[in-house]
Specification:
Structural class: alpha/beta
Number of helices: 11
CATH topology: TIM Barrel
CATH architecture: Alpha-Beta Barrel
Largest sheet: 8 strands, parallel, barrel
Bound molecules: 2-phosphoglycolic acid
Number of strands: 8
């Protein structure tokens, strides 16, 4: 198995002081862990978390960024600003960005190419809604999201990209895809990556599962052959819940 990549998406939670206190403890607690660990705080919380995590292995990422470098885009944050802070990782295409803020596959692709231009690592989220799954469109939706989202990406840039498969119906609902269903979706996504790039690129691509990952289901999910990590929302907000996920193999 590849090194597991466990990421915490804090969403709109954690003030700067809360985030700093949390990151300080998390950074200490993950010393010696076998997993790669990331947290994605809200933009304004990032500087405090970076400071708290300094010198540790904890990766600090943004939850989103603009599809432009600068200009008249009120309320947006550019990759140049993130890089200047020392942030080299960003989550793009989260389903909440897609469904609440109307981000299309094309806009997500623009952001992803811009992140690569600035040598950033991307956690690129995809996933189907319940209606799409129940109407038999799972594969069609995932294939479109991957093809359009990764358009223009070169094979050697895929090492900067982690794919997060997050079925929308499993996010924040307490419903988790069964390990087998999640694994099937991951295997399908890997086949699409193989078609777009190569077998070698597909095998090397880290694919995280996300959607109600918790301490009680992390081990079963992570033991599936195509699941290489987890993108965790709710359970990343407390050390009691997040650390057992990070240490799922202990
Ligand atoms: P959840 O969120 O773990 O709270 O379901 C996952 C996500 O949205 O990344």
């Amino acid at each position: 198995m590849k090194q597991a990549y466990i990421a915490g998406n804090w969403k709109m939670n954690m003030t700067p002081s809360e985030g700093a206190a949390f990151a300080k403890e998390l950074a200490k607690a993950i010393e010696g862990t076998g997993s790669k660990v990331m947290v994605a705080p809200p933009f304004v919380t990032i500087p405090a978390v970076l400071k708290a995590a300094k010198g540790s292995a904890l990766i600090v990422a943004a939850q989103n960024m603009a599809n432009h470098e600068s200009g008249a885009y009120t309320g947006e944050v550019s990759p140049l600003m993130l890089k200047d802070l020392g942030v080299n990782d960003v989550i793009l295409g989260h389903s909440e960005r897609r469904s609440i803020y109307g981000e299309s596959d094309e806009v997500i692709n623009e952001k992803l190419l811009l992140a690569l231009k600035h040598d950033m690592n991307v956690v690129f989220c995809i996933g189907e809604t319940l209606e799409e799954r129940e109407s038999g469109r799972l594969e069609e939706v995932l294939e479109r999201q991957v093809r359009v989202g990764l358009a223009g990406v070169k094979g050697d840039q895929m090492k900067k990209i982690t794919i997060a498969y997050e079925p929308v119906w499993a996010i924040g609902t307490g419903k988790t895809a069964t390990p087998d269903d999640a694994n099937d979706a991951h295997a399908f996504v890997r086949r699409v990556v193989e078609k777009l790039f190569s077998k070698g690129v597909a095998e090397a691509t880290v694919i995280q599962y996300g959607g109600s990952v918790k301490a009680s289901n992390a081990k079963a999910l992570m033991s599936m052959p195509h699941i290489d990590g987890a993108l965790v929302g709710g359970a990343s907000l407390s050390l009691e819940q997040f650390l057992p996920i990070v240490n799922f193999d202990k």
